[in-house]
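[Discussion] Sanity-checking designs against the backbone

I'm trying to build intuition for which residues belong where. Below is a structure token string of 424 positions. I'd appreciate it if someone posts a full sequence so I can compare it with mine line by line.
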């Protein structure tokens, strides 16, 4: 009875679904496996509590079985992602009923002795149960074996194996659902691009002292269904593995208009560290007639794992004359890391810092400190989100160089932006 209580407790303590934050990160399709952490825990528990040498998940494919997850000592007989013919070994035979799910001693079962792996590995005892998905299909098997026979294996151990297999099936169903959602999202993004999205609008950036336009920030707008704000479209694309293609597509669309603007106006585009590191951006920028009129804005919210690698990837772009801006400065801790590690040409003050700055001494102090620091490292300062004359006046008193926001001008369609650049 004590052993049964322990096994039941194990089933209750099995890992639950992966946390929502663990599922999404920039990268290619299928880059994150939400099932992995929970399944590795299951296999470790199987080995530990049943005294087995090897535990694994065998996925049935058309002609092969793939050992998707394996838990064993180093240099064990199996490794993750190894494949074998489906007809070989124990797994399919157990599902078909040609072998029992529980074999305490393979030497006492003629059918097991006829399998070459029994002697070659060797396999002394073997447990295997089907992993059945919620649609009734067989995904494969949850298996474990020991090198020596274990006559104690029996009904209690098999109840535990079936409980573990149900947990594995739940993980696989979750993974399939997530994969389907990603594929659906990727189709939406591809269709949006095929329909001409995103539409690019251009928000003027003013020199505060001269009250003249000196640049435009290129922003994306999506005028198609499903209705989502731009940041949501990019998030969906990123989680579906289609983030970099959409990002690059938006940058290419924006920069096709570069030569239409007067020479004194530059264009800035939002850019993720992942895109810079991918190497896909350099051919686009090197093909421009005047790449020195382009600035890459790297947001404060972008996660940078390796600043040395990012700086190295930016070096050839900077050699072309491309400027680097740190966006959303003052919104969080990451902006200061970006500034210190990337030595940007431009620092953009986040709108949360600009808003009502004329009425808030703490905001003024932080903006003044960031501006003084920026000028010490020869960086230009642009304030975002300016919505009143009082804010603009205070920013000028704080020696902020440039500003953008609805008080100065809303984002404009291309032709309106070109006209605006000639008259302001």
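Best answer:
Here's mine. Compare freely.
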């Amino acid at each position: 009875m004590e052993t049964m209580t322990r096994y039941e407790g194990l089933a209750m303590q099995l890992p639950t679904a992966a946390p929502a934050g663990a599922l999404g990160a920039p990268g290619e399709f299928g880059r994150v496996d939400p099932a992995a952490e929970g399944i590795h825990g299951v296999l470790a528990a199987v080995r530990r509590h049943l005294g087995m040498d090897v535990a694994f998940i065998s996925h049935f494919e058309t002609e092969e079985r793939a050992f998707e997850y394996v838990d064993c000592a180093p240099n064990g007989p199996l490794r993750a992602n190894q494949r074998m013919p489906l007809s070989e070994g124990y797994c399919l035979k157990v599902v078909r009923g040609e072998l029992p799910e529980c074999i305490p001693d393979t030497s006492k079962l003629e059918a097991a002795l006829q399998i070459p792996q029994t002697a070659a590995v060797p396999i002394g005892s073997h447990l295997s149960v089907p992993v059945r998905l919620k649609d009734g299909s067989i995904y494969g098997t949850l298996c474990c074996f020991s090198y020596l026979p274990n006559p104690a294996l029996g009904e209690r151990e098999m109840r535990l194996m079936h409980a573990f297999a149900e947990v594995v099936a739940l993980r696989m169903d979750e993974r399939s659902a997530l994969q389907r959602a990603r594929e659906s999202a990727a189709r939406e993004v591809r269709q949006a691009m095929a329909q001409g999205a995103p539409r690019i609008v251009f928000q003027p950036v003013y020199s505060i002292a001269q009250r003249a336009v000196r640049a435009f920030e290129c922003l994306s707008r999506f005028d198609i269904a499903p209705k989502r704000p731009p940041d949501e479209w990019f998030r969906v694309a990123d989680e579906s593995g289609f983030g970099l293609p959409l990002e690059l597509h938006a940058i290419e669309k924006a920069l096709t208009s570069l030569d239409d603007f007067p020479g004194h106006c530059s264009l800035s585009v939002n850019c993720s560290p992942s895109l810079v590191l991918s190497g896909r951006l350099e051919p686009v920028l090197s093909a421009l007639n005047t790449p020195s009129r382009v600035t890459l804005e790297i947001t404060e919210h972008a996660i940078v794992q390796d600043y040395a690698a990012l700086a190295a990837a930016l070096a050839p772009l900077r050699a072309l004359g491309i400027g680097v801006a740190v966006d959303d400065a003052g919104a969080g801790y990451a902006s200061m890391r970006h500034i210190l590690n990337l030595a940007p040409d431009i620092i953009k003050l986040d709108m949360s810092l600009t808003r009502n700055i004329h009425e808030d001494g703490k905001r003024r102090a932080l903006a003044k400190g960031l501006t003084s620091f920026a000028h010490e490292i020869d960086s230009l300062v642009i304030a975002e989100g300016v919505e009143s004359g009082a804010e603009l006046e205070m920013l000028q008193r704080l020696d902020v160089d440039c500003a953008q926001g609805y008080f100065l001008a809303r984002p404009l369609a291309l032709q309106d932006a070109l006209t605006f650049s000639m008259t302001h």
